Amino acid sequence: MENIGLSHFLIISVLLFSMGLFGIITRRNAVMVLMGIELILNAANINFIAFSKYGNFGYNGQVMALFIIVLAAAEAAIALAIVLNIYKTFSTVNVDEIDRLKD
Amino acid sequence: MADSTLIQLATAVLFLPLLGFTIALFFGKKIKAAYWFEIFTVLLGFIFTIIIAAAKLSSTGGPITAEFTWINLGNLPLIGDLRIELGLLLDNISVIMISVVFLISILVHSFSLIYMEGDKRYSRYFAYLGLFTFSMSGIVLTHNFFMMYIFWELVGISSYLLIGFWYEKKTASDAAKKAFIVNRIGDIGMLAGILIIYTTYHTFTFDKIFLAISHGQLPFNSEFWLTVTGILIFCGAIGKSAQFPLHVWLPDAMEGPTPVSALIHAATMVAAGVFFVTRVFTMLTGDALLFIAIIGALSALIPATIALTQTDIKKVLAYSTVSQLGYMVMALGVGAYQFAFFHLITHAFFKACLFLDSGSVIHAMHHEQDISQMGGLRKKMPITYASFLISSLAISGIPLTSGFLSKDGILAGSYAFASLTGHWVFPVVGFFVAALTAFYMFRLLILTFHGKPRNQEKYDHAHESKFAMAMPLAVLSILSIFIWYTPNPFNPEAGAFLSKWVKVPELSVPNNARYNFMKTDIKADIGQEVAVTEPEVIFSSAYTEAMDHAHYPAMFLSLFLAGFGILFAFTMYQWQKLSADKLAEKLRPLYLLSLNKWYFDEIYNATFVAGTIGLSRFLAWFDLFFIDGIVNGTASVTKGLSRFSGKFDNVVVDGLVNFMAYLSGFVGLIFRRFQTGKVQTYIVLVIFSLVILMFLFKSF
Hints:
Helix content of chain A is 75%, strand content 0%. By secondary structure, chain A is an all-alpha fold. Chain B has helices at residues 3-27, 34-58, 92-115, 122-141, 145-163, 170-201, 206-214, 223-240, 249-252, 258-267, 269-280, 286-307, 313-333, 337-364, 382-396, 402-421, 425-449, 456-461, 467-479, 496-501, 522-530, 541-574, 580-586, 588-595, 600-672, 679-696, and strands spanning 64-76, 80-90. The relative contact order of chain B is 0.07.
């Protein structure tokens, strides 16, 4: 077993980011898109923490990660509320079909 | 009388008929009596001319000139000094001529009052007579070539208007056109001559030009060109005086009213050519004079032979006029200057008289002009007959008449000329024509007035003319008597006319360009310089001597020939001992030649007229095919060009514009695909672009 280094974290972060991005792009369901966004945010968190551990930035990265978790929670709450409203209005959460700005 | 008064009178004389013309022409339709005003102006002018003539001829002073500068453009580039002076010249010949013009004019006015009665353009007729009188006075009174040319053309136009006065008749309007066009040919020569003179001397004034010539200044510095100039100027006289070969218009001009023929085509206008030559006589070289004499001799001979066989009373008189004018021109050519002018005056009276007589006859016969329809009119028209007889005697050159004096002078002059230079053709022609003249005049007289009436119906209608018509006949026939010119009926030199009034002008031509007998030797030349007051050429004594010698032989010979001619006419037509028809049969070719007027009209029609028509036809063809072709070609080229340009616009320019539109549309079509409205697509694109950018800027 080798030592786990920065690149391992970054690889995981990239994989996570890519999966999130893939989810955002490919999913039709708005909830699934939101989940992709959560994955991307967590990929960013992993980066922050990895650089906080292996870089000379002090604890700024960990603090930033905590902020992001809070922000992600708030974002999820608001976004789910929006999705619910959309569902109420359009009776669907398929993002492709929601293409009207008015009415 | 003071000179300035005379000039003022002369100016009035010149412009009075113009005033009459204007009034009669413009108010003739509204005011029926407008022609009376015109007659009044001419009468007033006549009185003035008599005053002028009396004053001028009794005074001993030289010519009176009055001039003013009309146009002064200063020194122009290329042309040089351009200054045109107008003015009047009163010398003996002009005052004699102007009074003759006005006298005949007023007599013709009087005659016309009755002759033209009932014509629908009565006032206009008198207006034209006024215009003619004005133009003719201009020719007589002018002192320069410029005005001479203007008035020359003005008499041409008034002649044209009067010949074609009855323009409803085709023959009349044709004759008017013919007269005008034939005159134009002569005038071209005159214009060329005047232009040569102007380029040489830069003045139009006679005196200045003659002075310059006598000082040795010649056109192009050669005597040859002086000769050419003289002949060119004489061309104007050939046209106007109906000289050979341009004499063809005058017989046709008889289509005009007969009083007009008397005034214009017998007495005054046709004499203008002769008058003009007397004006420029001093600048004519020997060669030019010889040319003039030849033309004069031909014009005297040919029409005289034609007059023998014509049956139209006016045509006979017309040919006789041409013949007599030829006499005058020949006289000028042989140097008998005084007699030429003398004959001009005497001829004016007796020929005007003859024409008015013929007018009287024609009027009485209800416009019958053919003498084969007349005869026996002697008893019905005694005044007309008497005046016709006197005038015929005068034109035939029978003693006690004016014509005898002047004609004898001309014949003696040509005889003297021949004896000095050896050109015997001139006296031979002169004497022969004298015999012919006597014959055809008496043929006319006998056929018209003697014998039995050949057309009884018309004869019965004939009557003597009223006073206004008969009075001019009487006056003119009285003026054809010798007494007015000389007290001695056999010696014209005895009268004031030749001894005092009309003198040969001093020649200004260089000595070696003159006839030998006109040369002055150097001594005489010096003598002349001293005696300037005597402006008379000193012909060599040989000429004077020859004239004296020629006087009596010429007189007897001409008398004999005239008597023979008259006798012949009487034998043939009065006593009918000789048959005219048989003679005509015997000399058939000659008879036909004479009857058909030497085929001049036919020859001219076949050559000049046909040539002109051919040329015009060619030019018309040229116009139609060539010029029109060029125009049409240009049009087609323009059409083609515009069609091409239109195509270019439609295809290339529009194509470019449309292409841009299609291109934008096409590009839009491609890029529309990116604008799906779907967030996920945008994200893909953003990421894709980001990846590209990262690759692009990876070196940083």
